[in-house]
């Protein structure tokens, strides 16, 4: 894969990380606000799923960053 393609993948993964984090926060807030236990459980489950997605994408993000020889300044968030 050409370096330009990998940089584009890195940019896409960065956007995906931000979207997963935003979704996680949205579902977490909805879980806090939900009054019905069944609805609260659904939002909590969605929050956990978004966190898992975020972890998978973060792992790919750092893998591509390493392949490109770029420094990883913070292991808990993208550039």
Q: How many helical stretches? A: 2
Task: Work out the helicity level.
Answer: over 70%
Distance between the termini: 22 Å
Radius of gyration: 16 Å
What is the string of helix and strand elements? HH
Strand content: under 5%
Shape: elongated
Average pLDDT number:
89
Number of strands: 0
Low-confidence stretches: none
Largest sheet: none
SS class: mainly alpha
Descriptive notes:
With about 80 residues, the protein is mainly α. It has helices at about 5-35, 35-65. Helix 1 packs antiparallel against helix 2 (about 35-65). About 80% of the residues lie in helices and about 0% in strands. The mean pLDDT is about 90. It is elongated and about 50 Å long. The two termini are about 20 Å apart.
Task: Provide the fold topology.
Layout: H1 3-33, H2 37-67
Helix pairs in contact: 1-2
Task: State the main characteristics.
79 residues, 2 helices, 0% strand, elongated
Offer a concise description of the structure.
With 79 residues, this protein is mainly alpha-helical. The protein has two helices and no strands.
